[in-house]
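OP here, attaching both records as promised.
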Amino acid sequence: MSADTVEQLLLCALSELTERYVTHSQPVPAGLLEALDGDSRRGARELARRIRGRQERNRSEGQRLRHLLKFEVELWEQGLTHVAGVDEAGMAPLAGPVVAAAAVLPKGYRLKGLDDSKKILDAEKREELAVAIKRDAVAWAVGRAEVEEIDRINIYHAGLLAMRRAVEGLGLKPDFVLVDARKIPECPCPQRGIIKGDTLSMSIAAASILAKTTRDRMMAELDTRYPGYGLAAHKGYPTPQHVQALKEKGVLPIHRRSFAPVREALGLGPASMPSAVQTELFAAIPTATTTKS
């Protein structure tokens, strides 16, 4: 923080003060806000309001991040240092693998803006968070289940397989695993499934970011291999554009043949024993437009 006195700061251009205390969120010297409140310039008073708004947002974000660490803190206090969060991306798409990620965060870790990947609509922001998570994590890994595995064992079990592979790829054995909504078969350590865990646990949220960004990059690469299907845009989800491309261009090797819209495009009947999970996933297909998992 600058050692400038409040009097010296008031001589600075308001644009410079805005850059310091709003854009870059530098600590605000004692007395500056009060001095800006009493300044005759309307812009100075507006700057004081903006700084206070930024401070309030920072406090709210701090509280949100503390709440996100609730499950991790309980485990850390029990002496369980390496807590892994696990989540997947790509259960509902008609094409491409299902991808899972596992992340072990440092004790007390907080990353501003980290949240469930479905809540972060800006792809660039998700990538920035993924870079930070990979840089800061004690360990992280991704696992995947291929289209052939999805068709053979069904999407639900394929998602669990991808999760197990992510945990096994960490390079260390976690003391405990927090999983979004389910439990991983043959998991090598104790675990807990948390309903809506990607919105309640920072470790699971971190895993959701890694899984989502990894899968999105995979689908962008597949788009260059199979142009004309819009894979980079819809990521394989059953959007009207994707379903129309299936009808017009045909089914690709990366399409999941156990999924109803793909079977329909192939002229096949319904799968002999559709899983309850797949039935639920495709209940709303005619109006599906989202590209998030």
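Record two, same layout:
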Amino acid sequence: MSLNNSYFKNVESLSKKFDSINKMVSKSMGPIYEKLDALSKQITNIFSNSIFPYLDELGRELKNVTDDIIKFKTIIVELGYPPHEDIAIPDIRRIVADYEEFGEEYVKSYLDDLMFEIYDEAYLDHILLKWEKIKLFSPRMPILRNIIKCHTQQMYHASIPTLLPQLEGIIVDTFHHKGTLNTNDLKTYLKYLLINDEEKLYSFKDALYVYYTKHILVHFEHGKEVNSKISRHAILHGAINNYGNKENSLKLILLFDFLIDCINQIDEQKIILAKRN
């Protein structure tokens, strides 16, 4: 019985000690908890007053960039260049801003030089290496190497008429076309290659379709003005002779390169559907 009393006394004593310790901890930690709570409120205020507005501003800026990309697709085709996905966002925004503020002629005054700077000889070497890796186009590589070589050696009257048939050729290869290829067939293939409702608004593929049909497949008649300086039919049928310059050669190379990128992304189901229509 005395043992039990001793035990309970010890428990009671320990309980009082723990209670005392708990009060001491609460007393000492209370100010710390208050400081942590105040600090938490300060951090929340910092986010509310600075970070969150910054995120809002970032969101608005991203929307502005997207809007500029959408505008750029139309503007670049109007200016006579094919869209190309390797052009940097700052260059896109500069072109759009200058076009809207100063007009088409102002942008045209520097656009060629800007494109020559972006897509220089080193870049052309890069895309040629990319073409080399595509097995489907390996039979065409001797021709494509000569096209790039002619361009870098300023032999534009050679690079342009050599490249124009290759545009059609890679489309024929992609869709396994047999027999005569008329313009309607070609446009059908281009639609399946470039027009996709699931593509985001800032994809350049739809603009490439407009460029191809407007500048490459444009209708012409001998003796009448041709509405494109790189019309496939007009050049290959000898209707125009003043096409041989650096900008026209570069335009076709960029068009060809972007087409290749699109071909690399197309699935077999689309190829099958295109052949049925």
